[in-house]
Design a protein that fits this description.
By secondary structure, the chain is α/β, with parallel strands linked by helices. It has one domain: Rossmann fold (3-Layer(aba) Sandwich). Helix content is 32%, strand content 21%. The chain contains five helices and seven strands; from the N terminus they run E-E-H-E-E-H-E-H-E-H-E-H. The protein has a seven-stranded mixed sheet, sandwiched between helices. The longest helix has 17 residues. The protein is globular and about 40 Å long.
Length: 204
Amino acid sequence: MPITSAQFVISSPDVASCPKSSLPEYAFIGRSNVGKSSLINMLCHNPKLAKTSQKPGKTLLINHFLINGNQPHAWHLVDLPGYGFAQAGLKQREKLKLMIERYCLLREPLMSLFVLIDCRIEAQPIDLQFMEWLGENEIPFAIIFTKADKLGKGALAANIDAYKRKMLESWVELPPIFVSSAEKGLGGNEIVSYIEQVNATPTI
């Protein structure tokens, strides 16, 4: 079902403060300044839903949004803090790291994470290490390459292929991969269709 409504619910400082809900949950995360807020706004057809900023490290809390709340198949979209913000102090980085890890490990309604990667940048150790941690802890995730409008088709395909090859050095099988552009509206339908597919999959 397409996203027809999106409503901010709450900002939480830790997983224990997140909504007491059994609705399926999909969280978006990535390094600072990867275009996460712009992508969320594109998916939800609301340019003001998630706060965007030229200054990285803006998101410091776990932000819940209710998607299609008036429909039978409602779900939560979660905007997680970015990681790897070099200008944040060590204490704040450690606090955010613990917040993210506890959310990923303890949040029962979490169906999948979407890890955002800037398509223009070669594979970074911080992203690869985070995804390896997800794999080790059996946390389902998918990759979304952002800012696809910033590259030509040939360069975009070459960069994504290079990223896949790098991941296959340590992964037997790659996670689902999507390509997006918040500016051009690219990839939104595919991402929402994937969420619908996961929601429709029976759980054991």
